[in-house]
Amino acid sequence: MQLFAQQVLDGLAMGALYGALALCVVLVYRASGIVNFAQGEMAMFAAFITWQAYQWGLPLVVAIALSMVVSFIFGAVCERVLIRPFGTSGAAHLSLIIVTLGLMLVLNSAAGWIWGYLTKEVPPMYGEGSVTLGSAAVAKQSVGIIITVAVVAALLFLLFQKTRLGLDMRAAASNPESARLSGVPVGRMLMLGWGLAGGIGALVGALVAPQLFLQPNMMAAMLLYAFAAATLGGIDSPVGALVGGLIVGLLENLAGTYVEFIGNDFKQAVALIIIMLVLLVKPEGLFGTKKVARV
Amino acid sequence: MSLLELQGLSAGYGPVQVLHGIDLRVDQGQVTVVLGANGAGKTTLLRALSGIIKGTGTVTFDGISLLGRPSEKIAALGISHVPQGRGTFDDMSVEDNLRVGAYLRPQHQAKGALDRWYDLFPRLADRRNQQAGSLSGGEQQMLAIARALMPEPRLLLLDEPSLGLAPNTTRMVFDSLGRINEETGTAMLVVEQNAHLALEIGSAAVLLEAGRVVSSGTSDELRGREDIRRAYLGY
Fold this sequence. Notes:
The complex is a heterodimer of chains A (295) and B (235). Chain A is mainly α and 295 residues long. In chain A, 72% of the residues lie in helices and 3% in strands. Chain B has a domain at 4-88 and 155-233: Rossmann fold. The longest helix of chain B has 18 residues, at 167-184.
């Protein structure tokens, strides 16, 4: 029972990170209509920036904040420079996906070139040690991660549902042409979407680095889980991404612990199976919009 | 000076030229109807005016040149476009749709504008929290029109407001448009297949054929011509 509770909480913490990265994928999807394969590498690169700033003597929290700001700008610039030249009509899907794959490779090599391939240690933001919750001892970092992601999710919800800017971003995502005809500067909204994804990704990178150890290939598996989470939750639903992330994290952890032949080495197959099943059975995901419109 | 003046407007899609030198003017507060068969270039004309596609020639709105300006800048000048197929934000609520329409207005004015359109279209008020995509065709058209009017434009471009609507709903939409024109003095350029209804609210009309203006005049003049009556009014 104690093991079970621990596995559940660890699964939720990991799942919160999958969900947060999935959220980045969803934000970009809603803005540009594509899946950004470079989202994981952007977070990895941001984690290196955090590590570097920390090495230079900044407090960890400040280093993370700095990396989030840099990543926000980098995300927005990526949209403007790499994506926008293909237009905003969404007609160039395949070209855009290839572009993001290219960006993924560039970031991966650049990180290796700058910082090398030896793993670096990033200290956990919420410190070492654990807290006792009921019968289970849970790492402070895990609890911290769950709370942080919850706060980020709440802030995003407020942004999208309660502010004028959020309304305009939703409009730009829903129907770019109509938004433009209403005067909304759609290009700026798309840049913002990419920027937010970059910033949140940087936070994910910094939070997951203590566990995965920082090196250029750190996010490869993470991104796969994030895709599974986004698919499960519905690729255009921010809420879905978070819920999907929690479910994937739980399933992965419990399956790894209790299903013997999966174990630790074969956990990633869980992500693939989830993606396959969802796409076959309920392609729009749990919270995604199924395109039904009355005419 | 007319509110909107077109001289030799040509436009198209890539290598395909659809409009071949359109001359047209819309006066302040006037409703002008654009008639024409499918493929005559009516939709292309509106899309070129609101900057969705590029065009060549001269287009001035209140003396300001429009060509080459992005859509959002043209909207800011006071031109609202209700695109064909309505262009509502399907996954957003009715109220959010209208609030997006008020992008160009200070927020404190938006509230008053909302109430005004809810008064005019009570069915929208009833469904203010419903997703726009779940509305009926007529309701969506009303929403699209109300959204386009939120910024109090000086010129409203309407692309086939009757498309896909039942006859009595179409009648109701046109009645509303006529009333809006009378009350607010908003000039309108209406593309419409239902020539009969459109000419009722329009004071001037042009007939487009294969991307060229082949006739123009007052509504009564066009209605009086036998060839037009046969081809577009059906009697």
